Amino acid sequence: ALIALQNGYYDRAGRFALFSLTLMMLAMVVITFVTWVDRIARLGRLGETIDKVEAATADALQRRRCAPTLRGVPAGPCRNEGRAIYGGSIGYVQRVDVTALQTYAEESRARITVAALPGTFSAPGRALAYVTADSGDLSDIDARQVAQAFILGNGRQFDEDPRFGLVVLSEIASRALSPAVNDPGTAIGIIGTFVRLFSLWSEPIDEGDTPISECDRVEVPKISLRDMFDDAFTAIARDGAGTIEVAGRLQKAFASLASIGDGHMRDAAIHHSRLALARAENVLEIPEDLEVVRKLAKLASFV
Question: Mind telling me which residue stretches traverse the membrane in this protein (predicted)?
Answer without folding.
Answer: 16-37
